[in-house]
Amino acid sequence: MYSLPVLGSGKTVEAQLPERVNPHVLYEVVRWQLASRRRGTASTKTRGMVSYTSKKMYPQKHTGRARHGDYGAPIFVGGGTVFGPQPRDYSYTLPKKVRRLGLEMALADRAQQGKLFLVERFEGVAGKTKEFVAWLRAHNLEGPSLLLVTSDPLVARSARNLPQVRVLAPEGLNVYDILHQEVLVMEASAWDVVKARLGGEGE
């Protein structure tokens, strides 16, 4: 059981998250995420794809030179590539239970470190970047990289241009972004959405 501080209110919210964080589960989920993001568009031309004449370079015998068929052979500059990369899909299936457990453990990791905060309202933030900078300064969050989870378009617009801030909708919260940023700040309403994703076991 963790007590998550609610910034600006002095209150806390009780959260039921794993007591023990398994780094291997986090590794598996991050590896699955990054594999799914790979475009897989790398492509090389094989010997049959290069634009060279297929005419034999010189007679097979009596020249004193090695036997060659055409300039498209892999040993020549500009020739085809042997076993080079071809377009492919790098994604694979990871069980839903592992994905859910990975998200729970990533949240627990931030909670253990005291870097998971909830916010009821972003006071004074109405769409301007300087307003969000002032809000960060007021809560001593200027320095670290920050993952902001919000469904408020004005708050998202205020924060999205800051290089140290990554903005996500509650539905897009994921293990990689949680671990990639130092601090996680979530709207209280976003926390309810995340609890629903975790099967109602967030509190």
Task: Give an overview of the whole structure.
This protein is of the alpha/beta class. It has two domains: 2-38 and 92-197, Ribosomal Protein L4, Chain: A (3-Layer(aba) Sandwich); 40-89, no CATH class. The protein is 32% helix and 14% strand. The protein has a six-stranded mixed sheet. Helix 1 (23-37) packs across helix 2 and helix 3 packs across helix 4 (153-159). The longest helix is centred in the middle third of the chain and has 17 residues, at 96-112. The chain is elongated. The model has no long low-confidence stretch (mean pLDDT 91). GO terms for molecular function: rRNA binding; structural constituent of ribosome. InterPro entries: Ribosomal_uL4, Ribosomal_uL4-like, Ribosomal_uL4_dom_sf. This is Large ribosomal subunit protein uL4. Pfam families: Ribosomal_L4.
Mean model confidence by pLDDT: 91
- Number of structural domains: 2
Query: Given the structure, what is the number of helices?
Result: 6
The helix/strand class is alpha/beta
Distance between the termini: 8 Å
Unreliable residue stretches = none
Secondary structure tally: strands:
6
Shape: elongated
Biggest sheet, open or closed, and with what strands and sense?
Answer: 6 strands, mixed
CATH superfamily of the largest domain: Ribosomal protein L4/L1
CATH domain class name of the largest domain: Alpha Beta
Helix content percent band: 25-40%
CATH topology of the largest domain: Ribosomal Protein L4, Chain: A
Radius of gyration: 27 Å
Read across the widest sheet, the strand sequence of neighbours is: 2-1-3-6-4-5
Strand content: 5-15%
Just name the CATH architecture of the largest domain: 3-Layer(aba) Sandwich
Order of helices and strands: EEHHEHEHEHEH
Family: Belongs to the universal ribosomal protein uL4 family.
Protein name: Large ribosomal subunit protein uL4
GO molecular function: rRNA binding; structural constituent of ribosome
Subunit structure: Part of the 50S ribosomal subunit.
